[in-house]
Design brief:
Strands 2-1-3-4 form a four-stranded mixed sheet. Strand 3 and strand 4 form a beta hairpin. Helices cover 34% and strands 17% of the residues. The protein has one domain (2-104): Glutaredoxin (3-Layer(aba) Sandwich), CATH 3.40.30.10. With 114 residues, the protein is an alpha+beta fold. The termini are far apart. The protein is globular and about 40 Å long. It contains five helices and four strands.
């Protein structure tokens, strides 16, 4: 998740018109503490049973836990525009692909200059 945070401005356009969700089986308290300590700019959702992740199309591993390094992008209208159950965090080309998915739904960068 640190790589997502570190590339938030470039890959996720600093959240312009998109919402990034990180879903985990961790408790709300553990997620809130971890997110605050590491200064994450994305939303975290506690999903102990894995049902929300499955509804987003992320799915679960064989042990019932949420798939690792999943990314869900929600467009400005509140629709899931992209979901992947396993993001290739150490592959630099994966960030280019993710940025392209964000660009499909994010507000234009020029919108900030109006």
């Amino acid at each position: 998740m640190e790589a997502y945070r570190d590339q938030y401005a470039s890959v996720f356009r600093s959240g312009r018109g998109v919402t990034i969700l990180a879903i985990s089986n961790d408790s709300p308290e553990a997620l809130a503490s971890w997110a605050a300590d590491a200064d994450f700019p994305v939303l975290f959702g506690s999903d102990p049973e894995g049902n929300a992740a499955e509804a987003f199309g992320v799915g679960r591993r064989g042990n019932g836990m949420v798939q690792s390094r999943a990314v869900v992008i929600v467009d400005p209208e509140g629709r899931v525009s992209f979901a992947t159950s396993r993001f290739r965090e150490i592959d630099p080309t994966a960030y280019d692909e993710l940025a392209a998915e964000v660009a499909k739904v994010a507000l234009p960068l020029e919108a900030d200059n109006d």
